[in-house]
Amino acid sequence: MSPKPERIIHECENYKTLKNRELYGIYFENELTGIIGLMHDTFVTELKHIAIHPNHRNKGLGSKLIEEIQKLTTSAPIIAETDREAVNFYKKNGFIITSLGEKYPGVERFKCIYNFMKA
């Protein structure tokens, strides 16, 4: 997500007001260290946001968030869109990855799908 303050404020308002949005957090040593945001639709759950504080990365916290979402969302596929940097994270967590090509100039994007029927 764009780090522009107005974009962050807009997305936070969406989580507060839209019934199909949910935001979860994960704590490490009594400190909020990560979040995951979802948008539910009839046939799919879209992972809109996932972030772990830089000081707490590589501790398995992002995978723990994904694992909990997989437990909560037991039938509809979970989808996400990401950049090349995060592809291996999603693969490690059971997602199937498909390139979307160069969605923005010089930036390849990827669709990630976790399908419970194949997991």
Topology:
Blueprint: H1 5-17, E1 21-28, E2 31-40, E3 45-52, H2 61-72, E4 78-83, H3 87-92, E5 96-104, E6 107-114
Parallel strand pairs: 3-4
Antiparallel strand pairs: 1-2, 2-3, 4-6, 5-6
What is the SS-derived class?
Answer: alpha+beta
What portion of residues belong to β-strands?
35-45%
Cross-sheet strand order for the largest sheet = 1-2-3-4-6-5
Query: How many distinct helices?
Result: 3
Unreliable stretches (pLDDT < 50, length at least 5) are none
The averaged pLDDT comes out at 90
Number of strands: 6
Question: Globular, elongated, flat, extended or rod-shaped: what is the shape?
Answer: globular
Order of helix and strand elements from N to C terminus:
HEEEHEHEE
Largest sheet: 6 strands, mixed
C-alpha-based Rg, rounded: 14 Å
Helix proportion: 25-40%
Distance between the termini: 28 Å
Description of the molecule:
- By secondary structure, this protein is an alpha+beta fold.
- Helices cover about 25% and strands about 40% of the residues.
- It has three helices and six strands; from the N terminus they run H-E-E-E-H-E-H-E-E.
- The two termini are about 30 Å apart.
- The mean pLDDT is about 90.
Short characterization:
The protein is α+β, with helices and mostly antiparallel strands. It is 26% helix and 41% strand.
Task: Jot down its keywords.
119 residues, alpha+beta, single chain, 6 strands, globular
